[in-house]
Amino acid sequence: MDNRPEQPAYQREGAPTDERIDDLLDRMTLAEKAGQVTGTWAGTLRETHDLDDVKEAIDDGHLGFAAPFGWGGALATTPEDAVSAVEELQTYAREETRLGIPLLFSVDAVHGHAYVSGATVFPNGLGAAATWDPEGVEAAAAVTAREVRATGAHQNYGPTVDVGRDARWGRVFETFGESPHLVGALAAAKVRGYQGKGSDDPDGPAIPTDRVVATAKHFPAYGEPERGEDASPVDVSEYKLRNTFVRPFERVLDAGVASVMPSYNSINGEPSHGSAAYLDRLLRDELGFDGHVVSDWNGIRHLHEDHRTAVDHADGVRQARTAGVDVASVGHTPHADRVVELIEDDRLDEATLERAVRRVLRLKFDLGLFDEEPEDAADETDAVETLGAPAHRERALETARDSMTLLQNDGLLPLSGDEDVFVGGPNADDLVNQLGGWSVGRDEGVPGKTIREAVADATTGTVSYAPGTTMNEAIDIDEAVRAARDADVAVLALGEGWYIHEFGPEAQAGSETGEWPTRSDLRLPESQRELVRRVHETETPVVGVLVTGRPLIVDWMAEHVPAILMAYFPGTEGGVAVAETLFGDNDPSGRLPISVPRDEGDLPQHHDALAHPTPIGADEHPDSYDPLFEFGHGLSYTTFETTDLSASVAARPGGSGEDDAPTDRTVRVSVEVFNVGDRAGTETVQVYARQRHASRVRPVRSLVGFERVTLAAGESERVEVSVSVERLGFHKPREGHVVESGPYRFDVAGASTTLEL
User: Fold this and answer.
1) Average pLDDT for 567-579
2) Which of 8, 28, 438, 538 could staple 485 via S-S, CB 3.0–4.6 A?
3) What is the model's pTM?
């Protein structure tokens, strides 16, 4: 006779998930429930925690989430230490707590697992967006997911779904640019890459063991802050909120994103972390999101410390929980304690807490965490081999190649490969600046080559080097000028360095708060401009390479320098991608995902501005959109011609009755693309649309579709871009999403056609 106690339902692997959740919830105390929706950290954030501190918090607060690596102040920074931390903490949670509920580990891996040494680091957001390649972005995200999961983490705080509408903003480099359509397409691709295809077994893991939970951030509107200042208020009409900022989130929700993170800022006076209007009624009731909402770091504390909509921490916790925040990402034991106190004092409904706990437990069951055996755990050797694996780095190189955006070229590029080259500028020999923010702050253990190293490998000529300047100060411009005078060509790697948020923190960014880069000045600092001017005066032809997170105003360079290459923050393989592009081994196919302004006074400036009158006449009114380089701009080493534009409507029956008329669903826009040059290249067919007459003021044009095509010299191809008719509609306040009948104009490469819908 077997006298062993029956295994609890929540521990039975074959039991239905809902049954397991119900069983576990029935066994949990109030304190255990509060802890399960609270996270903590190992490292330095307000205070320093080591692993013993985290274990103590698991004991005292029953915490369910932890972040011991994968962020700026983390305790573990190597793959070995990351795996070791996961093993120690997960073993403790499973074996030393009453119910053995496993922890969920989260990271910031927004462009690769970049806070862990040896990882593959991809171009940051704008660079990835410059590829205009959803399939490539999805493949890159899958690589990141594998590297994150190999170290034992389960949730990634990405993708960034913000629409970058202000070039001054210190986080614009994280975005996919200024177009809601481009942002939505690429963010949805990232979700697919991170989360993969779930199991067909309804009770099996919904997220494969080599993928991670994706987190769409920062809901609902973060990308056009007042003054371009990070986390400052966003005051927008419902019309703009829904048609610009929410639309990309609709795309990632359709892609099945499992988590959403609110924004730090207030919107129309409501802080996102405390807004039931945004997190409950909009996100859940209207948009149908059924995953979990995780706070941004310290986002709940901001309610009483900064927004001052709460009187104290407890009141902020109440606001956030009532609004719909499920997980306090780094609330630590004080957050869990406040939840218990609020419920015991009848200031928070326990049913609200239980809804959040259910979502968290479902996530852990979906990830298979309750059913993992010791042999399933992350392995140090496997982690070391996975991070920066050759195939992963090759994917990063492909992404970096495709991101290279040639802004101008008077025939200097491509170089032949036998030139004597002078390489200078503050970003010529700096891997950390090449990675950009949300990555390690030191180059120890970072794979890849700098631009200087890659250029030296690419030419048989002599390569000389002098940085000339730091980011802000001249150090050896005279030496740089002497070396440039003796070279056949000068490559100046200019731009910005590593930073996050408001261009800091100072200790990591290397420049004092208030020094350039700042939101008040999008021009290069005087030291870098002097370097360019003086090297130009040698009459050695200059190639300006912009390693930057923002679209910098380089009007003097645009007038005087023969060639300018926008490299963004290109990641570990960016040095090679730059060199390959300069020497013609890579045809530049990147296209700008954001406009490059002529002056800060023109901001905010974007291609899809609303139509408006010109009371004294159009001839007397300066152009509303006249950037230095337009959205979608980018040159190639070959020449493309686009002809024979046409547009037609594909229809399907609108209902089941015999009298139902067909309902328009898709507009098919097609063009013939010819490569009339003498080498292969990739063109991006960009489709813009405008409603000729509408019940509300609409943009003068907006991107509605795109398609990349690669053609050999002399080759042509008919390219068709499918545009959902729903994409031509808009949110009309008090009515919802509408698609209005009438004429619509479609523009491709200077040609236009009109279609009646």
Assistant:
1) 98
2) 538
3) 0.96
